[in-house]
Amino acid sequence: MRFDRNLVFIKSDLRSRDEIVEFLGRQLVAAGAVQPDYITAMHKREQDTGTYITEGVAIPHGTEESRSLVNKTAIAIVKIPGGIEWIDGKKVYLAFGIAGNNDEHVALLGGLAGLLMDAGQKEQLMAAGSEEELFTYLEENIT
Asked: In this entry, which stretches build a coiled coil (predicted)?
């Protein structure tokens, strides 16, 4: 998995889960990775099942039906330094907006899960102080 430096962000002005999902979706659209309707599917996924996966992390993505709206595999990442409440008192500091077709989608989730299950690697991601540092860490530690 190759990350795109232009899809790695640190943002303090996003105030809600919906704003973060919208932001990540728009970045994926701007990168040509998905069609605009994919953003609607990302919001639907949040409403139906949610994408909070572990302490401090969410992986927003579209529904299974929306995979036809994916043009190419991509991940948009945003770090929210102060965190935002994602669900019932649980904050998110890192959100990974993913777009992938069938096998690629599963591979993306698996790669991210592997990284995030490692407490040391997760701590390094959470500690990244700049977009460049976050990007470099991801590039060097997720294959």
From this structure: none
